[in-house]
Amino acid sequence: MGFDTTEGFALELDRKDGLRPFRERFYVPQGKIYMDGNSLGLLSRDAEATLLNVLREWKELGIGGWLAAEPSWFYLGEELGKLQAPLVGAAPEEVVATSSTTVNLHSLISTFYRPEGRRGKILADELNFPSDIYALQSQLRLRGLDPAADLVLVKSRDGRTLEEEDIVAAMSEEIALALFPSVLYRSGQLLDIERLTREAHARGIIIGFDCSHSVGSVPHQLSAWEVDFAFWCTYKYLNSGPGGIASLYVNRRHFGRQPGLAGWWGYRKDRQFDMRLEFEPAPSAAGWQIGTINILSAAPLYGSLHLFAEAGIDRVRAKSLQLTSYLIYLVDETLAKPPYNFSVGTPREDGRRGGHVAVEHEDAVRICEALRARGVIPDFRPPSVIRLAPVALYNTFHDVWRTVQHLKAIIDRGEHERFHRERDAVS
After folding, report:
1. CATH hierarchy code of domain 7-31+312-418
2. CA–CA distance from 203 to each of 153, 173, 297, 400, 424 (Å)?
């Protein structure tokens, strides 16, 4: 892309950045370079306003807020689903905001995993986020099955990435359901969701995706690709706040299915307060809601999603790719050789990369601590990954340039040697 290593070049990229005004709508920690938006996105003024509005409505309307609030609390999960649908390429009724990420996974697996005869195993991968694997293991145990035998994990060839060919090869006649991440949480690899879905369906396999590391950074076309189900958190790139409400997608061809885990909030809205004992799910993704929506958790997402509607996910993706390409270039040009010895564990092709870059170093734990001491906020993933996520809506190209200069100075001055090798409880 014709990059160079000078500071002036970074500043010139910022001057040409059409998304630059959005940075002013976020609370960027003063004196910090925040590069951890793939773990927890920053608070926007838009999200703050909608949270404060809900607090005002609660104060003024009390229980009347369920219908009189704007938007109505009673329909808030569906409204948030409608706002997210363009980000994932879905119809409005195919997405709903509800519960937490792993609870949504349990709900979806309970619905779609139907072992029958020889076709009884679940296919996943060894690089997936551990919570997903824990959930799959427990779902197997609930059915009296053995995770050691009935959970098939695709192996990585390099410990960083997965090959779609290996995933397809593992789609045997024994597989009933497959689950993969859209973007691998360590390396940032973006899988070919369309291809994997097509190959799974050709073999009679239901397939779903954990899109926690892609929604809000990478546009998807879940409906056009005919993905069966998907789920994601909203506190990373969607900036809904710590532990913010999660979301799920169910392809409309499955709307006639009975949700595996039923709860009253998934009842069809026009009859929910009839209080009948026979469950009648909403004829949409809303049927997969379980408990009453947490309004205070969901409120910031409402403001954040309006910000995304204004920015446009395609523009977000274009800048994200430019930011990560620039970061990879600077690491290669500035930090790859001795005495620095940094490397990049993220695929370099635009179509195979999500929104963060895995910068690898054998002393990554201590270097992360040294970065924090310098006011740069990364995160660490074992065994040797410094994850850096330059987020399109609030990070600048100058942020990226300065972060690389900090990495260089840390090694030049041996600053990382002052820190211990053990990670903190939260890294």
Report:
1. 3.90.1150.10
2. 18, 7, 40, 44, 44
The catalytically annotated residue of 25, 113, 387, 394 is 387
Instruction: Kindly state the tokens that stand for 168.
Output: 């397809």
Start-end of CATH 3.90.1150.10 domains in the chain: 7-31+312-418
Provide CATH code, domain 49-310: 3.40.640.10
In this structure, is the dihedral angle defined by the CA atoms of residues 188, 189, 193 and 197, taken in order, positive or negative? negative
Given 235, 237, 267, 329, which residue is catalytic? 235
Angle separating helix axes 313-330 and 295-311, nearest 10 degrees: 80
Task: Check whether 151 has a pLDDT greater than 70.
Answer: yes
Which of 25, 160, 186, 236 does the annotation list as catalytic?
236
Q: Which of 36, 125, 150, 210 is catalytic?
A: 210
Active site residue 236: yes
Distance, CA of 289 to CA of 272 (rounded, Å):
12
Q: Which residue has the tokens 């999660």?
A: 246
Omega before 300 within 30 of 0, i.e. cis = no
**Cis omega (within 30 of 0) for bond into 147:** no
* Parts of the chain belonging to CATH 3.40.640.10: 49-310
SS3 for 30-58 is CCCEECECCCCCCCEHHHHHHHHHHHHHH
Report how far apart the first and last C-alpha atoms of the chain are (Å, whole number).
Answer: 33
To the query of whether residue 17 is one of the catalytic residues in this protein, the response is: no
Can you tell me the distance from the alpha carbon of 79 to that of 101, in angstroms, rounded to the nearest whole number?
18
Q: Of the residues 9, 20, 119, 129, which is catalytic? A: 129
Rounded Cα distance, 275 and 284, in Å: 20
Say whether 302 is catalytic: no
The number of residues making up the chain comes to 427
For this structure, is 113 an active site residue? no
Strand segments, DSSP code E, in 85-223 are 95-97, 121-125, 151-154, 175-181, 206-210
Find, among 315, 357, 363, 414, the residue nearest to 184 by Cα.
Answer: 357
Annotation says 326 is catalytic: no
pLDDT tens, residue by residue, 183-237: 999 999 999 999 999 999 999 999 999 999 999 999 999 999 999 999 999 999 9
DSSP 334: I
Residue 425 predicted with pLDDT over 90: no
Where would I find the H helices in 154-294?
Answer: 164-169, 193-202
State both tokens at 6: 């000078």
